[in-house]
């Protein structure tokens, strides 16, 4: 998340809390909204899904004391009028830097709308504006990429490797990412001497800002690559194999480092985040690391007890139903659930429900009437006793 995002988004408004809200109030507001907007409760509703992502993003900042402090300081600086929007919708930093003039000013404005703006503020709030050595910025890191994959329930429990097709920016095969026409090479920027940053003194502060001559890259391309127009990247289709570990849960994000968009002019690639959606299963459910299963039994089986054979994800097991088992009782098959991250395995929780027959043969009805005659007096006596007691 860039500093530009922090300036443009009011995270307090997203969560519906005042700026003075306590950590507990922020957590309470997030949980309420997360329950209401979760994709499982709003299938196919893209608006709710976008709001859910916005709420999660806001909470990730406001729930962290350090991030919240930096966010408040940055918003206060912006709200005080130090910055103003330019005609392209970005932010004009000239108010803070006294209308700095130099070569390539237009290119500099573009950098302040992106990663360069983030670097500027990170140097302010991280204490990097002192007289120490200037950090070399170099080629810009590529953006992170998000993708979504729907897994079958069984694949999510056992783990699976699947091919994932993406259409996104990739390294230009013509210039191999440096942005220069084949046969030429980028040259070091004469203004920043290849560092990508220039330092200015502003009162008692020393600020580092992206070099406007090279747009913070540190190098200049005189003859641009005809394929990528000097960016070092082109849009292409690619397929990668993604390993989803056993026990991956619905809504979990898998991070693949360095598999996102390539960096500008040979910079490091961003990361790929794969959001996992798990299809519902017709038979099994899931609660944490435990699998759940509901199995019907007959009245005689509940009364007399029985050995019940039930399916699991890797075969079948036999569970003992003790005599006198009530409907709704849960039996446990240990080690037949989801594999945990530490290697341990959850359980299979089997809930038995007594199935009452709707149609009876004459023989079955006679048997039930005989049974009722045997057990009804005791049951009736208990009921009458309760009536007399609470009378």
From TrEMBL:
<dbReference type="GO" id="GO:0008270">
    <property type="term" value="F:zinc ion binding"/>
</dbReference>
<dbReference type="InterPro" id="IPR036410">
    <property type="entry name" value="HSP_DnaJ_Cys-rich_dom_sf"/>
</dbReference>
<dbReference type="Pfam" id="PF00226">
    <property type="entry name" value="DnaJ"/>
</dbReference>
<dbReference type="GO" id="GO:0051082">
    <property type="term" value="F:unfolded protein binding"/>
</dbReference>
<dbReference type="GO" id="GO:0006260">
    <property type="term" value="P:DNA replication"/>
</dbReference>
<keyword id="KW-0346">Stress response</keyword>
<feature type="binding site">
    <location>
        <position position="225"/>
    </location>
    <ligand>
        <name>Zn(2+) 1</name>
    </ligand>
</feature>
<comment type="similarity">
    <text>Belongs to the DnaJ family.</text>
</comment>
<dbReference type="InterPro" id="IPR018253">
    <property type="entry name" value="DnaJ_domain_CS"/>
</dbReference>
<keyword id="KW-0863">Zinc-finger</keyword>
<dbReference type="GO" id="GO:0009408">
    <property type="term" value="P:response to heat"/>
</dbReference>
<dbReference type="InterPro" id="IPR002939">
    <property type="entry name" value="DnaJ_C"/>
</dbReference>
<feature type="binding site">
    <location>
        <position position="228"/>
    </location>
    <ligand>
        <name>Zn(2+) 1</name>
    </ligand>
</feature>
<dbReference type="GO" id="GO:0005737">
    <property type="term" value="C:cytoplasm"/>
</dbReference>
<dbReference type="InterPro" id="IPR012724">
    <property type="entry name" value="DnaJ"/>
</dbReference>
<dbReference type="GO" id="GO:0042026">
    <property type="term" value="P:protein refolding"/>
</dbReference>
<comment type="subunit">
    <text>Homodimer.</text>
</comment>
<feature type="binding site">
    <location>
        <position position="189"/>
    </location>
    <ligand>
        <name>Zn(2+) 2</name>
    </ligand>
</feature>
<feature type="repeat" description="CXXCXGXG motif">
    <location>
        <begin position="189"/>
        <end position="196"/>
    </location>
</feature>
<feature type="binding site">
    <location>
        <position position="172"/>
    </location>
    <ligand>
        <name>Zn(2+) 1</name>
    </ligand>
</feature>
<dbReference type="Pfam" id="PF00684">
    <property type="entry name" value="DnaJ_CXXCXGXG"/>
</dbReference>
<feature type="repeat" description="CXXCXGXG motif">
    <location>
        <begin position="172"/>
        <end position="179"/>
    </location>
</feature>
<protein>
    <recommendedName>
        <fullName>Chaperone protein DnaJ</fullName>
    </recommendedName>
</protein>
<keyword id="KW-0963">Cytoplasm</keyword>
<comment type="function">
    <text>Participates actively in the response to hyperosmotic and heat shock by preventing the aggregation of stress-denatured proteins and by disaggregating proteins, also in an autonomous, DnaK-independent fashion. Unfolded proteins bind initially to DnaJ; upon interaction with the DnaJ-bound protein, DnaK hydrolyzes its bound ATP, resulting in the formation of a stable complex. GrpE releases ADP from DnaK; ATP binding to DnaK triggers the release of the substrate protein, thus completing the reaction cycle.</text>
</comment>
<feature type="binding site">
    <location>
        <position position="175"/>
    </location>
    <ligand>
        <name>Zn(2+) 1</name>
    </ligand>
</feature>
<feature type="zinc finger region" description="CR-type">
    <location>
        <begin position="159"/>
        <end position="237"/>
    </location>
</feature>
<feature type="repeat" description="CXXCXGXG motif">
    <location>
        <begin position="225"/>
        <end position="232"/>
    </location>
</feature>
<feature type="binding site">
    <location>
        <position position="211"/>
    </location>
    <ligand>
        <name>Zn(2+) 2</name>
    </ligand>
</feature>
<dbReference type="GO" id="GO:0005524">
    <property type="term" value="F:ATP binding"/>
</dbReference>
<dbReference type="InterPro" id="IPR001305">
    <property type="entry name" value="HSP_DnaJ_Cys-rich_dom"/>
</dbReference>
<keyword id="KW-0677">Repeat</keyword>
<dbReference type="InterPro" id="IPR008971">
    <property type="entry name" value="HSP40/DnaJ_pept-bd"/>
</dbReference>
<keyword id="KW-0143">Chaperone</keyword>
<feature type="domain" description="CR-type">
    <location>
        <begin position="159"/>
        <end position="237"/>
    </location>
</feature>
<feature type="binding site">
    <location>
        <position position="192"/>
    </location>
    <ligand>
        <name>Zn(2+) 2</name>
    </ligand>
</feature>
<dbReference type="InterPro" id="IPR036869">
    <property type="entry name" value="J_dom_sf"/>
</dbReference>
<dbReference type="GO" id="GO:0031072">
    <property type="term" value="F:heat shock protein binding"/>
</dbReference>
<keyword id="KW-0479">Metal-binding</keyword>
<dbReference type="Pfam" id="PF01556">
    <property type="entry name" value="DnaJ_C"/>
</dbReference>
<feature type="binding site">
    <location>
        <position position="214"/>
    </location>
    <ligand>
        <name>Zn(2+) 2</name>
    </ligand>
</feature>
<feature type="domain" description="J">
    <location>
        <begin position="10"/>
        <end position="75"/>
    </location>
</feature>
